[in-house]
């Protein structure tokens, strides 16, 4: 059984919450995405030293916060007081690193559907998959579950074990030759890949097997439209001010 989405698939996901219009992976990004009329968001989730999931892309804190060191070696108490906004613009000073719980709550309040990307630090693939799956199930209880994706097959398998009902996405830069076998192994709903690494053989095999293909990171409207014409179902974009499409696809 391949768990399906309980929502129709929007054409555009704001990448890392609010794309380039906000500091990445922040609640400010979610608010801006909603205000821009975007219905879907993608964000990255990594574990702290205490094993709690936080929105964070990099394994280290330096680029997107005023902290330093590895996220997986940083306590919840330290993460809770970091600033994750000012690196992008002084107007975002005071923006916290969100916990998965706070992002889930805000998505629900704003009516956003989500793609939660499990982003394990090296060596924490299984644990991150398990914790994120458990918390996604808890925080989205009683509402439509998000799409949960990862570059890590171990994380996806662990998530599948913990929460068999989760819709999963298998994520690659360039899909390997055996991507369909891998997608089927985790009973993933969708295949996600780098738009620049996409070739027609992947597209035709995805179409023939009824696997929706989603591509990152697409920052020009023309490029997004060209991908949609080729059969790509949705794109992740940093430029939600430019890449707009309000149509949605019902995936049976
Ligand atoms: O999930 C799509 C995209 O976010 C994957 O790349 O590095 O931005 O997480 P990255
Ligand atoms: Mg991501």
TrEMBL record:
GO MF entry, a single one: glycerophosphodiester phosphodiesterase activity
EC number: 3.1.4.46
Domain GP-PDE: 10-247
Keyword Hydrolase attached: yes
Highest taxon, organism lineage: Bacteria
InterPro entries attached to this UniProt entry: GP_PDE_dom (IPR030395), PLC-like_Pdiesterase_TIM-brl (IPR017946)
Name of the protein in its database record: Glycerophosphoryl diester phosphodiesterase
